[in-house]
Amino acid sequence: MSVLSAEQAPVVRQLAASGSDRFADLPWRTVGPGAVVLDGAAAWLEVSVAQQVRAGDHDIVVLAVHDLDADHDVEPLVFHASRFARLQP
User: Fold this and answer.
1) pTM here?
2) Most exposed: 15, 29, 37, 71, by fewest CB within 10 Å?
3) Containing structural domain, residue 60
4) Rounded to whole angstroms, what are the CA distances from 44 to 11, 20, 29, 82?
């Protein structure tokens, strides 16, 4: 799981698109057994599904974290109140 950087806001729209290769032209690498991490991400987590619970028309997915890391020099992308924002120090 990649935590995108503030500079990667356009990537969100590409990854959310349907009917195309969402990872086309995006630099990425695999870690662990086939997990995909986007280059330039503010942080990444290697996870597996620990539990999945049906809740109406949604699923609640509980993840087990096996490894993680962050680039503390990179600002994370924040989505709040239906828009992208920056964290204030």
Assistant:
1) 0.78
2) 29
3) 2-85
4) 16, 24, 11, 23
